[in-house]
Amino acid sequence: MGKPPVGAGRPPTSVDIARAAGTSQATVSRALNGGRVAAATRERILAISRELGYTPNAAARSMVTSRTGLVGVVVSDLTNPFYPEFLEEIAACLGARRQHMLLQNAAGGDEDAVELLLQQRVDGIVFTAAVEGSAAVAGLVARRFPVVLANRVVDAGCDTVEGDHPAGAAAVVDHLAGLGHRRIAVLAGLPGASTSARRLAGIRDRLAERGLPEARVVETGFDYDRAVRAATELLTGPHPPTAIVGLNDQVAFAALNAAAALGVPVPARLSVAGFDDVRQASWPTLGLTTVRQPLAAMAARSVALLNERVDDPSLAPRHEVLPAELVVRSTTGPRPEAREP
Amino acid sequence: MGKPPVGAGRPPTSVDIARAAGTSQATVSRALNGGRVAAATRERILAISRELGYTPNAAARSMVTSRTGLVGVVVSDLTNPFYPEFLEEIAACLGARRQHMLLQNAAGGDEDAVELLLQQRVDGIVFTAAVEGSAAVAGLVARRFPVVLANRVVDAGCDTVEGDHPAGAAAVVDHLAGLGHRRIAVLAGLPGASTSARRLAGIRDRLAERGLPEARVVETGFDYDRAVRAATELLTGPHPPTAIVGLNDQVAFAALNAAAALGVPVPARLSVAGFDDVRQASWPTLGLTTVRQPLAAMAARSVALLNERVDDPSLAPRHEVLPAELVVRSTTGPRPEAREP
DNA sequence: AGTGGGTGTGTATACGTATACACCCACCGG
DNA sequence: CCGGTGGGTGTATACGTATACACACCCACT
């Protein structure tokens, strides 16, 4: 008896609405998208479409408009709390422009992630996981596909947005040096990770400027478990550092936990600092001293740059640096008394 | 001169490949998708498609196959670390089936999120944020749209997967009661959040069974900041509890932090327990006693149930309960000496 | 030599939408 | 009274892919 309004069949189309309303499909499309349609007709069409539970087919629409309103976002590790916070900001910025986020986790290389995003014909891609020399990114840039690197800088000729790593690194070094620390260790990401590389360079430069000994650097790839092991080795080895800087909060927490497991009091015998100012850093139980990244601003600028490039792919690449700020909490303190033999 | 292999133009299509290979578009499609094609022809087509940087248009494909290979996932709060961990599991399960995840954050109601997912014609939706009586979910179920509720149970007639909340809650109560606690407070989610409701019911039941006084319950909506305020009020009020149970780890951490800010030692003067066993719970600096949810299994079963329903939408609704397990760490201890006047 | 089946290919069509174009009608100014 | 204008609508087409169908072969078997 009639076609079932509630059933398993395929979803209603604009043609179904047209038939029900006694108009052409074109008029339905116009009514739904704000074209010139008689008020009465539009009213009728809207009513029917609501009654039928009509939902426009994004695929069909994108075929003719050649725009999807989707923006790809590639992250390297969702469980690093930095990313969820960043993604919420990104999603908010996109939402304001009626765009949506297509998230891809690129744990094992970004080739697959990019491939999927291209198949979905996203309007552009925001990378937060680009590794120096990523073939995937290079390929996109060569094709003039809209790409923004957020919190990452690669020499590829595309737009980038990052915190002021040199300034942040200098602030950490100044803070620790001011507390008397001289044996400073660093937990870094992989050598190819540009964020890590730039923060590390900033630390090295400042140490050199102040005539302080070089830092011991362990590359853990920002992997939590490896960072815990590295910190444990540092603390139980021959000349333990009096301060450990994690190049993101995730590994700084790892250092904190390694110290706790070993019974090393923080900050009495060990100072720890990080980068990002993730939400947990401000927890009283953790109280991590860290370099805050301007999350909201980074997200906003990333989305803005991307959309500008979508509208005009011939733009020259731009590089934006946003201010970063040291937040001192309770994991850093004066260098402990040396108790050499 | 010639068509630019590297340029800003629209991406190459299967027709472009056909033209270059001197075949029909149909043969290209067959060659790319494993149809019967002469070996030599297939080879030539693959070479050309690689050379042109061809990427199939998912929209066009989905129009004819009426399958997108996309699965919608709705979460309520990405910054609750439970979700990133869960999403990684989900993504892994989907990847094994060559499906992909379309993530939606439903902070302010799930209507908009569902609408977008429907427009994208996802094959099905996994909800981790369904609130009791969600109109959006009810509508989907009525239309027989494939839906799975993970870690949520609503009386809507759809598939659900959840941890064993009653057992978990009983284990927490037994543990605390065994330590001598009698004044137990609970930080709960909103009344409509089914996970919260079921865990709370479990706690109440077990307290009653053991003849213990009723728990004081504060509904914070699983919001971190509100949970901190609530815990602070509990601890500074007239009859402070000796134990606080957070109905997820997020709010348990909030209690921990409130205690730390007030200088209340844990577990000496206050015991704290949570639900989920998020990664941070095992950190030595936090060491949260909590009820572990079987994350990987929940993800696997959710994806499996969803796909079974995609293949056969007429299936009767199924409800799976997976074992949960109490993990005792360092935030719970014996009830402190009563120091009444 | 004729039939049958299998292999490789081309032709044609469908999916659902937006939009260029043509058309009709009512109205208004000259 | 007529040409123009503009609002409202229908017709036709394009987007890129998968696939049903038809067809042209070639080989093997009776």
UniProtKB/TrEMBL annotation, chains A, B:
Keyword Protein biosynthesis set for record: no
Pfam families in the cross-refs: LacI, Peripla_BP_3
MF-aspect GO terms: DNA-binding transcription factor activity; transcription cis-regulatory region binding
Domain of life according to the entry: Bacteria
UniProt keyword terms in alphabetical order: DNA-binding, Transcription, Transcription regulation
Signal peptide location: none
PANTHER family from the UniProt entry: HTH-TYPE TRANSCRIPTIONAL REGULATOR GALS, LACI-RELATED TRANSCRIPTIONAL REPRESSOR
Protein name: LacI family transcriptional regulator
